């Protein structure tokens, strides 16, 4: 029987968009390392595969851009809240009965007033003015006042939030935003079709025995693709397990088996004995005052 090369199945449909584009990108790199004529892959097929892969990457980048927009808004809200807190504490302490707080607020309010309605400015102007505010608040003459009004932590958090905001803003500036991109599901079908076509042609080239075909190269490609598929499946299963663990609460400890309810005691016996079977009730008698089994409820 003619020897063939076998390439495992990865189940591309189960992968999310990020996993899908990552797999195809790595698979393309494996195939692209070899001369097309020696592995039986026509150049136009590789170009089409690469083009669809690029469109998938653009779609994913657009999703990232939308996520960045949300994160930017959240981070801006955070720094606005910190600015408002700092300014309100300073202005509130203008009425403080404590001399040290009153003095600190009187000097710091001059700094706060320089920046007016800082929180309502555009993103780029606000970032620059926050940097200016931080420089002013960190001046040696104001450092003791910041400590007095217990604003050190808030100022530090404002600096961190502004730095993180700027980082997100710069990332969003380079993110792709196109209105003419197709749906991800449509492109995925095309990319998968390219990949499956490549696999078919690799196997056909190995069987052909054509002079230009290098079977050792084809064996190496099959080996590398199978390794990639193993890693992809392992990563997918790990991700699935982590999601399940995050969704399901930890199993509570198995509760101890409850003890048997206390058995009624026999006269002079322990609670572990079998309860006495009730006797056939006797004819009721009129109670008399000397019967110890009959008691009146206490008021």
Fold and architecture overview:
By secondary structure, this protein is an all-alpha fold. It has two domains: 12-62 and 183-240, no CATH class; 65-174. Helix content is 63%, strand content 0%. It has helices spanning 17-32, 36-39, 43-92, 99-114, 123-137, 143-148, 152-174, 184-208, 215-247. The relative contact order is 0.14. Mean pLDDT is 83; it is low at 265-273 and 278-299. Residues 240-299 are annotated as: Disordered. Residues 245-265, 276-289 have a biased composition (Basic and acidic residues).
Mind sketching the topology for me?
Elements: H1 17-32, H2 36-39, H3 43-92, H4 99-114, H5 123-137, H6 143-148, H7 152-174, H8 184-208, H9 215-247
Helix pairs in contact: 1-3, 1-8, 1-9, 3-4, 3-7, 3-8, 5-7
Biased composition (Basic and acidic residues): 245-265, 276-289
Pfam family, one: DUF6261
Region (Disordered): 240-299
